[in-house]
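[Meeting: bench + compute handoff]

Bench side (C.D.) handed over the final construct sequence. Compute side (W.E.) agreed to return the predicted structure before the next meeting so the bench team could plan truncations. Sequence as handed over:
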Amino acid sequence: MQNNQQHEPYKDFEEMFKEEKQEKQEQLDKKQFRQKMLSKHIIALSSYIVGFLFLASLIILLISLIPGSINKVSPVDQVIESVISDSDGIAFVEKEAFNNSNSVYKKYLYTLDYDENLLIVVNNYNLDTFKKDWVIIDEDKSEHINLDTLSEFIDGTRTTWEGNRKIVLYRTDEGQMGYPSFIVNYDLVNDVVINKDTQRYSNMTITVTNVLINVILIGVVGYLLWPNIKIDFEPFKKKDLQMILGIFVGFGILFGAMAVSDVIQQLITIIFNISGGQSQNQLAIEMSLSGFGIPLMIFVTVILAPIIEELIFRKTIFELSRKPWLGIIISSFAFGLLHVSSELATLTSIGHFLYVLTPYLAMGFAFGGVYMIFKENVIVTIGAHMIWNALSIIIALVAF
């Protein structure tokens, strides 16, 4: 008995070395696995970039051969869309034209009667400023245009909104349905003239293209990264409660990040004297939530986009970066810039660009943080991303 007790410390010592050896072996196996997967992550990232740059163009070109895939957009509709995109814009549009335009437009715009024929159209983000100087409320609480303010605008003495933001008049040529004939001298106002029809891919064409490109990319990237994906699925097969709850914790973290992003956006509006605005990416999604394209757009936004984006921006970029802090920074900025690529291409206003970039940047950092907290498990971030996008779609549909 005494002899056995004397050997117990040695057994404990042996067990300690055994555990240490096992831990070192696991670290070595993990390192070898990551080294083995390195080339696949490089190919996955390259496939994603090439897919969006070239394959998407090829698909949309083929779809455009189908009759009805391209729509004609009239000058007056372009004027209305310009005010949606530019929160400093204003337009005078015939009521008939506005009523016949896309019903989705009305969510982003405030209108006020100028006379029996014309409506004044401004961006909802600029509504408080517009009402402060341009609108008079009578005893019946009806709203009317302030003719004194309008006169100042027409004669060129009022050229800016509050905060020294330049007023931009979007208009058509004479004889078209967005021409304010009461303005005598257009040299006195800052105007943008749109006088020709333009052709544009229909929402259905763009949505179908998005479905196809995402399905193809998920197939390619999923095949390349399947060894990683299988490992990340293991905790869910074992019903690991921590990982399952991680999806909802991730959603909560994202919610908090977006609250911080709202504060930062408010600071940006003050620093750059802008009234806010919506990103072209978000506008495109919400514009597609009408007609027969709704189910496909929901499928892309809620299912496909979270899968491919998390596989690339979290799994692949983190693996290639190796250092967690570097992975979070690179993936967050890459994720953010992808979603504001239209604004980056034009870059008409640094303030507006930073304003629309901020929420996507916040999302990127939130997803990156969740990815690290939950042991680099991409299924957790995919789940949180899906829930967030589903909530965004529900809010957009209810708003319409």
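W.E. noted at the follow-up: Residues 168 and 190 are 5 Å apart (CA to CA). C.D. will use this when planning the next construct.
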